[in-house]
Amino acid sequence: MPTHPVIPAELPRQNVLSWLKARYFATTRDTVVTVIFAAFVAWILWSLIQWALLDATFAPNAGDVCREDLHGGACWSVVTTRWRIVLFGLYPFEEQWRSGLACAVMVLVAVLSCVPWFWQARRLAPLWVAGFATFYVLMRGGYFGLTEVTEQNWGGLSLTIFIFAGVSLLGMPLAIVFALLRRSNLPWIARTMALVIDVIRSLPMLSIMFTFAIVLPFVLPEGLTGDKLYRVIVGYALFFACYQAEIIRGGMQALPNGQEEAAKALGLSYWHRIGHVILPQAFRNALPPTINQFVITFKETSLVTIIGFFDVMASGRAASGTADWNFAVIEMYVFVGLIFFVFVFSLSRYGAYLERRLGVGQR
Amino acid sequence: MSEPAIHIAHMHKYYGAFHALKDINLDIAKGEKVVICGPSGSGKSTLIRCINRLEEHQKGDIAVMGTPLDDNVDNIDEIRREAGMVFQNFNLFPHMTVLENCTLAPVLARKIDRAEAEKTAMQYLERVKIPEQAHKYPGELSGGQQQRVAIARALCMAPEIMLFDEPTSALDPEMISEVLDVMVGLAEDGMTMVCVTHEMGFARRVADRVIFMADGQVIEQAPPDQFFDNPQNDRTKTFLSQIVGH
Predict the structure, then answer these.
(1) pTM for this one?
(2) Taken in order A193, A194, A197, A203, is the CA torsion positive or negative?
(3) Which candidate from A265, A277, A359 shows the least CB-CB separation from B80?
(4) With CB atoms 3.0 to 4.6 Å apart as the test, which of A25, B111, B141, B220 could cross-link to B145 if both were Cys?
């Protein structure tokens, strides 16, 4: 019998250089294209680094230095000088520590809510009640010897976070209620709810905010009208709830009918079925669009500017909008953009963590 | 003669204009095992789904363990606690472990203490021969194992009656026997059972009565020997010749 040629068991392992060569420098044309694009990317990166870091002015109150700067680097001085306005808005200078503290409390409460240990109603509820109470006392004042600062002067990042938290906490339970009503067995409830959801979704957010901020006080009795800020939060929460209700409904519709049938056959009551079988699975299905909705909500808090509140975006414009600093608008927008990025990116990453933990798509 | 476990009298069911079940009269005694068979579309699944109100009947009376089946939610919940159901597609809750699947209803619907519910669940899981799977998720189990968990889950509610809606129709052939063995064991322990199935070997072995349905009506019912060896109705004969062959 002729002997067979010996075939090596494995291909020789590639080192980094040969991998690079195969991918980017295989042929002459590949090499040329790679070099050109690499040069282009390097030039852009270098210009960016030059502008943002090397030629930049970081010191506060260095507006003159920035203006005289021949290299045209970034004037971060506007950020280091005016950052208080971005974070706290029009809040009085001496009391800004309260605003900062309140903001930190809110963020802490939000982070704690994300920890699985807290995922029980009897732990979440006191946490949020305490969080909001602390926030209110710190921001509003009038208690414990703190000077009063009305809602009109709340602003900046604290305001944005407060609005976002309020809308989310009010809007999510409302969304669940709307979604459940929408799939009610009684046709007139289901149809009315569908109509309400569609009408509210069809209105621009701004018109809803205007209605709640300006029109509602004329319609409601004196005692029921809270401060403009809370009315706006309620209006926004309603809007959020309508969008989120449809997302939840989509999650519920993705469930096989057999799930609810099995729960019924076991003798579980309506609320037990909904709470233990339907909604947990519906939320798993609806997690990606839900995170989407939260991200959009966070960014759309900027719309309160129209009503006269200074959220973080408006505060940023106000900070760089004075005659001294209006050449440094880009730097301020980058700073505000970074703030948004931090929050929104954290939200997205948390969504990814939740999906892994809940086994979305696996069970 | 004590009251029947399931009493159905002059029951009609419509899907819109379609007359799905026509004048069903059925009394099933406690401890009796009834197998319902028939061609697809005959209404056999609809019939047992009417018993625990997964489908609603328009005319006639249904009573389970003496409780009338009407629009009263308490009655419906009571009946559902007394009649366990096993589905063709298992319908286990995928976001809970096997043990949690089994303890959910006893803890919530029968208000049984969790530790005790877990003990009972483990006993039933041992009875269906998969106690080691207790902490796995349904997605990690084979079809036969999932169906056995479904049976254990239904049994954990300590029902008087077990309803089976084609429990082996979605299983690979080699897994059918492990599920049928469990069902035979249940039958021998005296459970009242109503099974919709095509497994005629099982029917011969376990059933007290075999019911043949077609076009929403009960065509023939008889003890298994008489039903299989000496069917009276032509329709029954046709059906049997089509399925008993394999």
Answers:
(1) 0.83
(2) negative
(3) A265
(4) B141
